[in-house]
Amino acid sequence: MPDLLAINLALFLIGLVIIIKSSDLFLDKAIWIARVYKISELVIGSTLVSLCTTLPEMVSSITAAAQGSGDMAVGNAVGSVICNTGLILGILLLFTTAAISRELFMLRGVFMLGTLTIGYVAITSPAETLLITRGEGVIFLVVLSIYLVVNYYESLHGVVLPLPSSQPAEPATEGCRPDRSARRLASQLATFLMAALGVVFGAWLLITFGQRLARNIGISEAVVSLVFISLGTSLPELFTAIAAIRKKAQNISVGNIFGANILNMSLVVGASATIVPLQPRDGFLRSIDIPFALAFGIVAFSFGVVRARIGRTTGIMLLLLYLVYLSSMLFTGRIGV
Q1: How many domains does the chain have?
Q2: Packing angle, helices 182-216 and 2-36, rounded to 10
Q3: Tens of pLDDT along 220-265?
Q4: Kindly report the CA angle at 187 between 184 and 192, in degrees rounded to 5?
Q5: Which residue blocks in the chain are alpha helix, DSSP H?
Q6: Does a structural domain hold residue 307?
Q7: Mean pLDDT throughout 177-201?
Q8: Exposed, middle or buried, 302 (CB in 10 Å: 0-12/13-18/19+)?
């Protein structure tokens, strides 16, 4: 047993190193794309970065759906929204303030709250059963398509936010313009995709061997399934946020978190339900989890739209709300002590 514990710990730490290094490189390339092609950081963060950092949730939820585990498929997506907004965005905003474009932020906030509302309506209708049908899965995917089209349009015509001054200057070609050659672009995209795969692989190591560690040291299955998996699949967003603070690219991280929340509901739940209808058995998904996810979204959205920036006050409120959510799990007996 001690040898097994040591192996699980070693692989867990290897996953941690991989995800830290990969997320750093991953963010560098996202900043390069935004700089060279004059795309808003918020747009880059809420599409390209979010698609990659949501891969762990998508893989785990689709696998769970295929195995008939609706609780894990839906709970993973909703739990990741709660963790992304309450914990990760809350921590990020304790250390930095993100100045944002009201128009861009409002659009993403509306999509985020809209997908959560669709999820709530889907899981509460009919009231006597918890079920997300294939048809409702298709609705999620249609919303996702609209979201991606809108983001593509904004990448061509939207507001460009300032990029971090710490980012090294792009080598210039004729006329002092940044190198946009096909060869340069291919090289940057290849590195970006390799770094994204590193993030996903690192997250898989953390989730797999973190679960084994939890069982080795006697943590209950409820803690593993309800808290640990959603936290584990949100680690790419966490390390992207840490890298963004260091590189003064917080708009990418805020966009990433909002975009990841949209994708968690529209892509993760939508794709899972389209493969097989989801029928979770945990009634607290309807009465506690999705309402809390909506509450987190409303807090972040309201402060961003009213102030055109979100900072420490918003972060403190999100973290306090996250503590209330964890407390509710204890009071309802979902997590044993």
Answers
A1: 1
A2: 150
A3: 544 555 566 677 767 777 777 777 777 776 666 777 788 888 988 9
A4: 125
A5: 2-36, 41-44, 50-53, 55-66, 70-82, 90-95, 102-124, 134-157, 182-216, 221-223, 229-233, 235-246, 250-263, 270-275, 284, 290-307, 312-331
A6: yes
A7: 78
A8: middle
Determine, yes or no, domain membership for 44.
yes
Least confident of 12-16, 160-164, 277-281: 160-164
Sort 208 into a burial class: Cβ within 10 Å, 0-12 / 13-18 / 19+: middle
What range defines the domain where residue 111 resides? 38-159+214-331
What is the chain's length? Answer: 337
Hey, what are 303's tokens?
A: 């402060």
CB–CB of 45/262 below 8 Å? no
Q: Which residues pair with 278 in a beta bridge?
A: 132
Measured torsion, CA atoms of residues 152, 154, 156, 161, in degrees rounded to the nearest 10: -130
Per-residue confidence at 161, pLDDT binned at 50, 70, 90?
very low
More confident residue, 128 or 286: 286
Sequence-distant (6+) residues with CB within 8 A of 86 are 296, 318, 319, 321, 322, 325
Tell me whether residue 109 is in a domain. Answer: yes
Whether residue 167 is predicted with pLDDT greater than 60 in this model: the reply is no
Enter the pTM of the model. 0.73
Q: Which are the contacts of 274, defined by CB distance < 8 A and separation ≥ 6?
A: 134, 137, 138, 141
Helix axes 134-157, 250-263, angle to 10 degrees: 150
**Is residue 45, in this structure, part of any structural domain at all?**
yes
Distant-in-sequence, close-in-space partners of 27: CB < 8 Å, separation ≥ 6: 49, 240, 243, 244, 247, 249, 252
Contact at 8 Å (CB) between 57 and 203? no
**Which CATH number is 66's domain given?**
1.20.1420.30
CA 12 to chain centre: 21
Q: Is the pLDDT of residue 333 over 70?
A: yes
Task: Tell which residue, 44, 117, 42, has the closest CA to residue 309.
Answer: 42
